[in-house]
Amino acid sequence: MKDLIVIGGGPGGYVAAIRAAQLGMSVCLVEKDSLGGTCLNRGCIPTKAYFQNAAVLRTLARLGDYSVEGGEFSFDLAKARERKNKIVGNLAAGVQQLLKANHVQVISGEATLKDAGTVVVGDEEIHGQKVLIATGSIPSIPPIPGAELPGVLTSDEMLDLDTPPRSLAIIGGGVIGMEFACIFRSFGCEVTVLEFQPSILGNVDQEILKRMGLYLRKQKITLHTGTAVQEISHQGDSWLVTATGKKGELKIKADLVLVSTGRKPCTSGLDLDALGINCSDNGLIKVDDNYETSLPGVYAIGDVVGKMMLAHVASEEGIAAVERMNGLSSNVDYEAVPSCIFTFPEISTVGLSEAEATSRGLDVKVGKFPFAANGKAMAMGETDGLVKVVADGDDVIRGIHILGPHASDLIQEAAVIVRNKMKLTDVINTIHPHPTLGEALHEAVMDAAGRAIHLASRH
Questions:
Q1: 24, 71, 118, 390: most buried, per Cβ within 10 A?
Q2: Average pLDDT over residues 285-289
Q3: Is the pTM value of this prediction over 0.90?
């Protein structure tokens, strides 16, 4: 009898298992595929490995900007895939070692939930005081005629290509779609993105999105927003995507089609309905503040809950869930979750956008600072983008949005600021080193207070 059985070894499940073991619980973790889940094996890490390949190619394409003369170079996606697989393998082995070091029993196989305290894996029954479901999500395929054809891929298959296609049509302009658009454009592909909604990356601050649209066009990535895909068909050696847009019918010809229209919870085989575990209409498991489901003793976290489908949120939910099981008062601050989008340039955000702050009736103060006026960005030759700060009438910083170089690194400070409800003066009075990209954040905060030094005042 275990104290806790965790179903799923992704960033939610394995982190929860380790934290539970630290708290003295005996833990068993069941994983049907590879430890690390989608994030490590088919998501965050593999795409970031390719993102680095793309970043290097972008630098090589403008060596002259750095007074470097270079000869011809070529890119081998098959070798890049080998590098990606090696990185994934090393990290997966690290997760396995961490679980072993914390005395977490790992069982390979597909789990079925028999009752609140019994999990079946193959012919084996595992008994536990509590069960935590952390089975993640899978790509959601829309009911488009032709979506099942062999040249229509999900993000999973895109990561296993040997050669880049000459042209790529991407259905869906969310985070996954836009990251692949920028990566494969850097690999030399002609890229067209079709998005049903009025804009790509719908949850991002509108001013950031407007700037991003310019940078995407600069990269010669074609965007069609407000566009509904009607059909995918085979045409010779290519694929034809037929859609209806703002100007009528569109026909996009491409060597490959990527469908990236979101993800759905992975709960098949768990028999949730038979056990009476309540789910929403879209299959997300309903939980209370303790992450406990409608079946006492059974908990759920991460993408199957769907509060925010991010790896780091799943990890925090896993920690909070097991700490609450042990009587600790833990919670996840969903108002201060940083989010990173690995496009060119990068986008990162935490807290409220300007529109969200306004919709809440806040007296909004906005500060901005462009990377074009930042010394470090100029030295790097990476001046696209800006930092935007959203504060309320009490000068509390409610949101920070970054478009530009190393945005995914700069958001760390921003998350601390928003999480701790720091005021403009708290950041203004914190000395930021020079020359650094972080000075752009400092100046944006000063701008919100009408005190920007290296920017002509807008106040």
A1: 390
A2: 96
A3: yes
